[in-house]
Design a protein that fits this description.
Layout (H helix, E strand, L loop, with lengths): L9 H14 L8 E3 L9 E5 L10 H9 L3 E6 L7 H17 L7 E6 L1 H12 L6 E7 L7 H9 L1 H6 L1 H5 L2 H4 L11 E7 L20 H4 L6 E5 L10 H13 L7
Parallel strand pairs: 2-3, 2-4, 4-5, 5-6, 6-7
Antiparallel strand pairs: 1-3
């Protein structure tokens, strides 16, 4: 039988949301790309971290990819005090620089954790460089918005204005991103179902402690799978990495390489 953490009283819930906001703040370097471009393999994967994090948070996944013969390129984006759109503009410049070092016919794959997945989708929807991306995987990405971000906005408009990335994650703001997945790119999503983080008790539906499973899914995905991990561990798991690699290779989480 699955157990649930009882939802705390409203006042405590707001305190917990505030802790979530402040505790995530690292204000990462806004314009750097990590990953050697010397001796790159034939398969390059760009990794994008989530809210309040930096490229170090994608190191585990990058190591798994490197071990499998890929070249993992990790970026640092301003995903705390800047909107998703602003972070995506920084991302586009980083990707343009990377692609300028590659042959015109060479494509790359992209993997984003949490808000990083939204940055990737924004890039695919708005950048003229999108045809160079053939596969993308979204890990625990709030594609339909974050209920926790909505709680934070209800608590204090000034709070989400300050933490502009969080404001971008409110469900009513997601539609303003005008996300439209291109036919040229196969996109898969991985959701977590282990809602054992404290803030998971504030969410009514199945979740990973930060993002509800149903927010990760949307009908246009080429594939979707749920794993028994929470939001903080899912992108560090070897199982997740294996599925990411399978999707990059085949466009499916279940197809044989």
């Amino acid at each position: 039988m699955r157990s649930f953490i009882p939802a705390p009283a409203p006042a405590l819930a707001l305190v917990l949301v505030f802790i979530f906001i402040v505790g995530a703040c690292k204000n990462p370097v806004q314009n750097s790309t990590e990953g050697s471009r010397e001796g790159m393999s034939d398969r390059i994967v760009v990794l994008v971290h989530g809210y309040g994090k930096d490229s170090d948070d994608m190191r585990s996944l990058g190591n798994f990819l490197d071990e499998a013969g890929y070249t993992a390129v990790k970026v640092d984006l301003p995903l705390t005090f800047d909107s998703v759109e602003e972070a995506a503009n920084v991302f586009e410049r980083e990707v343009a620089e990377l692609l300028s070092t590659l042959p015109d016919e060479k494509s790359v794959a992209m993997v984003g954790h949490s808000t990083g997945g939204l940055v990737i989708r924004y890039f695919l929807s708005h950048s003229p460089l999108y045809p160079r991306v053939d596969r993308a995987v979204l890990v625990a990405t709030p594609n339909r918005g974050s209920a926790l971000a909505e709680m934070a906005g209800d608590f204090s408009g000034l709070l989400v204005e300050t933490f502009a990335t969080l404001d971008s994650l409110r469900p009513e703001k997601i539609s303003r991103l005008a996300l439209n997945d291109p036919d040229e790119t196969s996109i898969g999503a991985i959701a977590g179902s282990k809602g054992n983080l404290v803030l998971g008790g504030l969410l009514e539906k199945e979740n990973d402690g930060r993002v509800e499973v149903e927010s990760v899914f949307y009908p246009e995905l080429d594939d979707f799978i749920i794993l028994p991990y929470n939001h903080h561990e899912i992108h560090h798991s070897r199982q997740t990495a294996s599925l990411v690699i399978r999707f990059i290779d085949t466009g499916s989480f279940t197809a044989s390489p």
